[in-house]
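Reviewer comment 2.1 asked that we show a complete input and output for one of the modelled complexes. We chose the pyridoxal-5'-phosphate case, as it is the one discussed in the main text.
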Amino acid sequence: MEFETLCLHADNNESDEWGTLTVPICQSATFVHKGVNVPSEYSYSRLSNPTRRHLERTVAALEGGADAYAFSSGMTAITVSMMLFGPGDHVIASDDLYGGALRLFRQVCACNGIDFDFVDTSDLEAVKKAVRPNTKLIYLETPSNPLMHVTDIGEIVKIAHGIGALVYVDNTFLTPYFQRPLELGADVVLHSGTKYLGGHNDTLAGFAVASTKELAEKILFYSKTIGGQLAPFDAFLIERGIKTLPLRMDRINENAGSIAEFLRNEKKIGKVYYVGLEDFKGYDIMKKQARGFGGMISVEVESKELAEKILAGVKVFRFAESLGGVDSLITYPMLQTHADVPEEERNRRGINDRFLRISVGIENVNDLIEDLRQAING
Ligand SMILES: *Cc1c(COP(=O)(O)O)cnc(C)c1O
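Response of the prediction step:
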């Protein structure tokens, strides 16, 4: 089946006696055993739940993984997947990551004895230089948040597998519709399902998708031990979102391309960070490893005053954290997603008081462009 069809029929629900078309919300914490020593698929919802399982099978199919697990948030998925590493292990991670992942690595995992090196993973030489005998994982986002660094997943896989390390890719920004890291050799794909997979800014969710049964079992062990699984109702909502993922992503991709072009021609807008611009660094790698560019655009505007004016002046775009939904949003990373990154480091990387991040939604593109125009120039 092709991707669009998988979004609806990857795991057709044929197991219940009512013949429900839509998977029912199975709001049961526990399941009745058929007898002593009679095996049953479900026993307790922390281990597995029919509604969640249906969603997990769908996401595993979309990413081409051996199995997937759904969590109560993207951060839970990342945290549980990081349990595979412990004291004495070394991890190479992108230096441009979702702020919450950086906080987890620096303020939790590092305290628990994992060593980290943060490098620009789009620079393969820098990655090679960071390798140590105890390197067990290379962790990346591509495009990265919020600077849109593009990392060549296949090349990173070569480096990692050459030294017996794993590769984790946070695929939140592109979704499997545009990019499938496991097909490029990555070992685990992570998602904030809160973003494009759910797509409606109404549910928190996260996923870990493993390339092999063996890795999936390791993640499942930590998942059932720690907890934090996605609730049945939330699984139902994310499943519903996924049915329209390709339609939304196509529209978002198209809107974002037009908005990036518009921004590029605005005098008061400095650098436009959009991986779909032909002269953007990493464009060629995007063309090679992804089928679309997504809806995330960052810009550096002419002054702090203009950044604040835009945030106050937009009427269609909303000034809010998060991304990936049907509604277009603008974020001020310095004060929101990346507030916990030390100021000196933020400034060095360019996440300053003139830096804004846009998540393009599915509104009419003319309304979106007009809204930005009046907010910038009005
Ligand atoms: C939002 C986000 C996360 C964290 O996901 P939550 O669902 O908010 O916990 C992780 N990675 C990326 C790239 C994100 O955008």
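The first strand starts at residue 67 and ends at 71. We note this here for comparison with the apo prediction described in Section 3.2.
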